[in-house]
């Protein structure tokens, strides 16, 4: 069982970097061990993109953070497609190299901000789950970074005054409270495992997972939609 050791109210500036580093250590060796054909597989979590497209998007986003390049329209669908297109001539190994550097260096940059970039670390972690899911590797939307990812998810949903939700997780010792403080009634209730909860909040395919959700619709939970 996982025990949440950090408060969900106070920002830990080192958390995004820890999350990125934990996922880097799991994902990069996996990618370096896979044949080029795997990079062309379609991503179920990001329809229309391949594994390589997801990785190129991730490496480009982290490069922008490290280099402080945030022009107008950055991270829009059009901007993301341009970033992917700019890397079309790169080898898969070069994309992975850029991703590894970004996951190593972006944490210190995010730590020095007001927290507005923390969601990028969560998004990168989710995308790494997308890739692991396609490749059939263990730990998709889970793994060593899960406690930090859940802490970050709880804080982001609270800041955005997202739908209030009380989550009783199979793999967590204590209930997780997400979203705004419930007013005028009880919060929505989730019972199930943490990886499925992440899939719901990220709008990812559930793959027949067993869970209970009462008081909210699945689409209401998606923070990336």
From TrEMBL:
Top-level taxon of the source organism: Bacteria
Domain Mycothiol-dependent maleylpyruvate isomerase metal-binding, by residue range, is 20-114
Q: Mind telling me which Pfam families this protein's record contains?
A: MDMPI_N (PF11716)
Question: Which Gene3D superfamilies does the entry mention?
Answer: dinb family like domain
Annotated protein name in UniProt:
Mycothiol-dependent maleylpyruvate isomerase metal-binding domain-containing protein
Q: What organism is recorded for this protein?
A: Streptomyces canarius
Lineage of the source organism? Bacteria, Bacillati, Actinomycetota, Actinomycetes, Kitasatosporales
